[in-house]
């Protein structure tokens, strides 16, 4: 039977930059791939925003303000597991980034233009595409 998980990710904005993390398990050693935003799967019966705050705290040690969701996606992680993901825009509130070395090897604060240069980080590129589409729709309204 297919098990479906819910995952949440935070696109954390600080001034004109966003926080990205290099996935420690990335099979590629170059600096163009393996980048992602903080987040992960919700625990059983966990509220969505609580889970996002927990994941962000675990992976970065930052305090954030969650603003709004801007994208929902789905995918299969294996023959037995599927995932529904929600991307949220969040605002940096306080703290210094301390990454969980079990999951990530480094971090950067980047502009969207700098993120666009990380061409082999496909998930991150999709997330930035969704954010820019959402932002454009809001501006047009």
Characterise this structure.
The termini are far apart. The protein is built from 3 helices and 7 strands, in the order E-E-E-E-H-E-E-E-H-H. The mean pLDDT is 92. The longest helix has 19 residues, at 122-140. The relative contact order is 0.26. It is of the alpha+beta class and 141 residues long. Strand 5 (63-76) and strand 6 form a beta hairpin. The protein has a single domain (3-140), classed as Alpha-Beta Complex (Nucleoside Triphosphate Pyrophosphohydrolase), CATH 3.90.79.10. Strands 1, 2, 3, 4, 5, 6 and 7 form a 7-stranded mixed sheet that branches. The chain is 26% helix and 42% strand.
* Shape call: globular
Low-confidence region ranges: none
Helix content: 25-40%
CATH domain fold name: Nucleoside Triphosphate Pyrophosphohydrolase
Instruction: State the CATH superfamily name.
Output: Nucleoside Triphosphate Pyrophosphohydrolase
Radius of gyration: 15 Å
Oligomer: single chain
Count of DSSP H/I helices = 3
**Topology, number of strands:** 7
CATH class: Alpha Beta
Roughly what fraction of the amino acids lie in strands? 35-45%
H/E series, N to C? EEEEHEEEHH
Q: What is the overall pLDDT average?
A: 92
Structural class: alpha+beta
CATH arch. level architecture: Alpha-Beta Complex
Count of discrete structural domains: 1
Distance between the termini: 43 Å
Largest sheet: 7 strands, mixed
Task: Show the helix and strand layout.
Blueprint: E1 3-14, E2 17-23, E3 35-36, E4 39-41, H1 48-60, E5 63-76, E6 81-94, E7 104-110, H2 112-116, H3 122-140
